[in-house]
Amino acid sequence: MADADDEPTIPRAAVNKLIKELLPNTRVANDARELVLNCCTEFIHLISSEANEICNNQMKKTISPEHILAALESLGYGSYLDEVKSVLEECKTVAAKKRKGSTRLENLGIPEEELLRQQQELFAKARQEQAEIEQQEWLQLQAAQAAQQQQQQTAGSVGNNALGDDTNDIDEDKDGDDD
């Protein structure tokens, strides 16, 4: 069996914040905070396990809010359903606003056409800079190749001169004159 430390739990900071917001003028002992934390964790585990069982019985693969509501009812927490449904509607409203709500672009105060024009300018500038970089690289490659050819030609002519001098020495030795 796994240690209690290995089990997932609600962050202590979240529970402490809830306690402070709900009971602003009340001191709560650390062991009482720990007990609230453990109760919250156990409650969530209980509800989610029951909702999972309901979900499986309905041959569903995803737990939906309806499964949570049914779990609350079957575990005897039916008196909380009205408040839970109200919170669910509030969450749905907030989520819908986030999806279709104001985006950062809308908060800029710049018309979309202007933003599109600026974007096109940035793309053109980036393409120009990339072309200049590629041009510089090509010129450097051409210069390196020209330098390499120059070195090969210089090495070839020095080698030919050296060979030519040696052949003259050999020719002189053929005359039979030993110096």
From TrEMBL:
| Annotated protein name in UniProt | Protein Dr1
Q: Which Pfam families match?
A: CBFD_NFYB_HMF
Ranges for region Disordered: 144-179
- Keywords in alphabetical order: Nucleus
What the entry lists under InterPro entries is as follows: CBFA_NFYB_domain, Histone-fold, Ncb2
Query: Which Gene3D superfamilies does the protein's record reference?
Result: Histone, subunit A
* Amino acid composition bias (Acidic residues), ranges on this chain: 166-179
The source's superkingdom equals Eukaryota
Q: What does the sequence similarity comment in the record state about its family?
A: Belongs to the NC2 beta/DR1 family.
Q: Which organism is it from?
A: Saccoglossus kowalevskii (Acorn worm)
> Entry's CDD domains?
HFD_Dr1
Composition bias of kind Low complexity appears in 144-153
User: Where's it found, cell-wise?
Assistant: Nucleus
Q: Which residues form the Transcription factor CBF/NF-Y/archaeal histone domain?
A: 9-72
